[in-house]
Amino acid sequence: MEYLSVSNAQKCILESVKFSDVEIVGLEKSLNRVLVRDVRANRDLPPYDVSAMDGYALRSADLAKVPVTLEVIEDIKAGDMPTKIVQVGQCARIMTGAPVPQGADAVIRVEDTQAVSENNVRIKFAVKAGNDIRSKGEGMCNGEVVLTAGTEITPGVTGILATVKCAQVQVYCRPRVAILSTGNELEDMDDPVDPNKIPNSNSYALMAQVQALGIEPALLGIARDDPAELTEYLQRGLKFDVLLVSGGTSVGVHDYVRPAIEALGVQMKFWRVDMKPGHPLAFGITTKTAVFGLPGNPVSSMVCFEQFVAPALRHMMGHTRLYRRTIVARLTHNIKHQPGRTEFVRVTLAKEEGGYAATSTGPQGSGMLLSMAKADGLMVVPAEKTGLNASEQVVVQLLDGTVFQNAADFKE
Amino acid sequence: MEYLSVSNAQKCILESVKFSDVEIVGLEKSLNRVLVRDVRANRDLPPYDVSAMDGYALRSADLAKVPVTLEVIEDIKAGDMPTKIVQVGQCARIMTGAPVPQGADAVIRVEDTQAVSENNVRIKFAVKAGNDIRSKGEGMCNGEVVLTAGTEITPGVTGILATVKCAQVQVYCRPRVAILSTGNELEDMDDPVDPNKIPNSNSYALMAQVQALGIEPALLGIARDDPAELTEYLQRGLKFDVLLVSGGTSVGVHDYVRPAIEALGVQMKFWRVDMKPGHPLAFGITTKTAVFGLPGNPVSSMVCFEQFVAPALRHMMGHTRLYRRTIVARLTHNIKHQPGRTEFVRVTLAKEEGGYAATSTGPQGSGMLLSMAKADGLMVVPAEKTGLNASEQVVVQLLDGTVFQNAADFKE
């Protein structure tokens, strides 16, 4: 049986899964979704030259000598239109966003002025023509494409959609995902504690990983090691767009999962990936469903999800950014590696001068789920390395929980 | 009036806001929330020495000379208990997670063996005592604290909570957040396009920023520049834990917001921060509500949210990671900076050998919301700098949309 590299397995998966259907959702439900179509501006913004500051609109030529006192001829609020033309020696009090009156070619902010009387203001500094004026159309021009198809809706994008009054947005659907755990050894959440059994953590960890991508999965429960029961559960799972089956895909003689999956007409693409943890990772498709056979070990399952399932789900939702963000960090200690498989080592990250230091969470056994709970990232050890040395620059995939950090950490 | 530095303003805010109440939620609703109490293991995991592989449990001393053929005395599946003791020259077929039988001190994976007959297997390689055995309690020991109070519930943490059967989790509540925009110049989503007005993007961009933190905010709409109307809206907002008021906090003579807020008994802590964009950032509290006066400019509003509101909301929800993740990047071009205020420059990031390159999104006018939609991060320019040079190492805060990247970007 061929063992695929991580990248070849990713490639095979992405070539096999399809874009989701599209749907229209309200702007308030659209965060993190992906635009199906280009979005165009429906107006010029600003609609005319406007002030960028609260201050005074004036003629820059009047400031040849400063300080100078100008006559205030008008108050212009945002939402007002000016009614007067600014002549030599005059100015208009103006608010941020208000239209610059005819005659004026610059704005000076109120902090750089001093009110002398109701109708006179002292200008302390000279400014150039155009100062603190936002030109007509500088933000967007009517008709121009402001957001392209394939754009992920971040808060900044939401702001643009609101600006062009896109109250309803066409986005890719979220795939419907089912999660199935398998194995006689598993004890579910509601079962009493039995020391001879293993708690079913995979269903829930996978649930959370799917939720982190914005999808609410269906938990199908635990299928026991009985071909008929397993087939029934799998049939239920094959009604979804994506089925995650945890456990039962290794080469042991007691694995019912492989024959049961194949008997249901799932076309298996591969059964093994050259990685650690996560060796027994299977993938297949039907005309409707992408099926991932994830390892039964909790850590392996989570690592495989990050490398293969998350990119597939994001691809289906129209994203172009499919892979975990990586950074380069300094390894704080030597680690050994048996050449052959790409290894993902759970690490914590610490800030240091110029970047990050990465430190292993400790023993990397694939049953060590606590290490996954503590990890900031997955350090990638290339397959052919015999180890990595302290101070080497390493690549770390950032995991959930790293979007924010303890300190602001910048010089202000 | 004193202008606070960014860090002093952050400090003032964090000292003023309170932890939220606590509530109990189902595990399936707990992602990204924060644990109020320590969580302890309720069992040993594994409950006994178990196999880490599908293979054969054997006596390592029997492998002094390999290959060697051993007698297979039993099949042990995960969930089974062994019934026989492995004697010299014997082994047991064993599945991942199944208990290691008495007599055996190592496991060899099935790939390193060859079945000779139903009851005999040829072992191709020697392994040491302990090989591929996960020891009792290696994952967790009954009674030990596995998760400490204050832990954010990431998928790995969800796995641990499921492992210890924590179906209900005590977490900090999400604060109730209201968003109010102000100004006669604003045109709301349902209004017809009026070239003399400015579309209300702030309410929606802020909505998305709040949603990105896992909170569903209430949109109060637009209060016009009328003291009575504004007071009514503010009173509605002061029923929430956090009120975000966008616009109307600058020093212009037409700003009704400041007196209206103060008249309602909000104790204002500050009105200005030495930053750009975002100068007019106000903050005050009542016994119930934290009130943020955000600038009316869309970009300023969003930047201020990231620096001040997000840390406050995360603090209230019990998080210790409050600030946007920062990385160090190489600036690709010179930029000028007028000394005085800390500046946040919208940048895009590109991968390059050893790290990231940061490039300004272009003109940084605070009306340029498109630049915020395109930005991967905010580059921080320290207040006293006169500029930054191409190739300088700069600090960049990563914004939403950067959790994933286009390529896997590691050597495998």
Can you tag this structure with a few keywords?
Molybdopterin biosynthesis moeA protein, domain 3, 7 helices, elongated, alpha/beta, 30 strands
Structure description:
- The structure is a homodimer of 412-residue chains.
- The first copy, chain A, is an alpha/beta fold.
- The first copy, chain A, has 4 domains: 6-21 and 174-316, Molybdenum Cofactor Biosythetic Enzyme, Chain A (3-Layer(aba) Sandwich), CATH 3.40.980.10; 22-42 and 145-172, Alpha-Beta Complex (Molybdopterin biosynthesis moea protein, domain 2), CATH 3.90.105; 50-134, Molybdopterin biosynthesis moea protein, domain 3 (Molybdopterin biosynthesis moeA protein, domain 3, Beta Complex), CATH 2.170.190.11; 326-398, MoeA, C-terminal, domain IV (Beta-clip, Beta Barrel), CATH 2.40.340.10.
- The first copy, chain A, contains 7 helices and 30 strands.
- In chain A, strands 7-4-6-5-9-8 form a 6-stranded mixed beta sheet, with no helix packed on it. In chain A, strands 16-13-17-21-20-18 form a 6-stranded mixed beta sheet, sandwiched between helices.
- In chain A, strand 8 and strand 9 (120-123) form a beta hairpin.
- In chain A, helix 1 (6-16) packs across helix 6 (298-316) and helix 3 runs parallel beside helix 6.
- The interface between A and B is large, with 136 and 136 residues.
- Strand 22 of chain A pairs antiparallel with strand 30 (404-405) of chain B, so a sheet runs across the interface.
